[in-house]
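Table S2 (continued). Query chain:
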Amino acid sequence: MTCGEIDKHLGDAIDGSLPRSIHKEFFDHLNLCPPCRNSYEFELLGKSIVRAKVPRASVPQSLYAAIADQIRRERTATDKRFMERFLPSPVVALGIAVLAVVLLFAPPQFSQKPDPHPPTNDIIGQSLRNFTLIQSGELKPSFISCYPEGVLAYFRESGVRFVVNIMPMENCDWYGAISSEHNGVKLAHVLYKVDDHMTYVYQMETEALKEGSPLQLPAAARVALEQSGWYTDPEHPDHTVVLWTTNGTLCAAVSSMKKDRLLALLTHP
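Corresponding output:
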């Protein structure tokens, strides 16, 4: 696939409507071509900013189709020349993108306003509450990227010293990241936007989960993790809740996906 073909399909990729027949070829090209990868990440960032700041309004399907068709027909090489003029190198473009994310998505506070049901020190309870805040838009990522490597770099810069586990997911629109602390315990929060589903993974160093720790797990979860390294919580029918330990890190995932699909993604080599 050429750079011109990438530019032609860029809008579809950003909208999540890229034909599956060219999906792999498209993203393989981005992995090898920094200018095209930069254009994709810049436009994805712009769309994320608009979604965060402008409420969505429903329009007739016929109007949506007409607008989308007009946009596609009017996309020309002018867009790319504009990017090349004002963003002369991938490094500069990435710097601007990161700066925009940092300015617009300030480091979040997990308890920004009084909660009628204050969260306890239970990790599963905190994970579910954070997931609800993410779905409502009250909690936003501090950093987003199309690639896991960018998220890992963010956590390193944020002072996270334990191993943050990020699974490269096929068809993942973007990866999000948040770094925080709870009573002195460093936490990493990873977001995955796959199709119409959001998956949130709360992560902490396993060693921090000990007697007297400010964060705790239910007894059933502790036993299952000690025996098999995995635990699925059956108490939340509206969400899939999966916990596992790997590389010295405890991970607690909450997702709108069905359990079988989420487990398939989490265990994919």
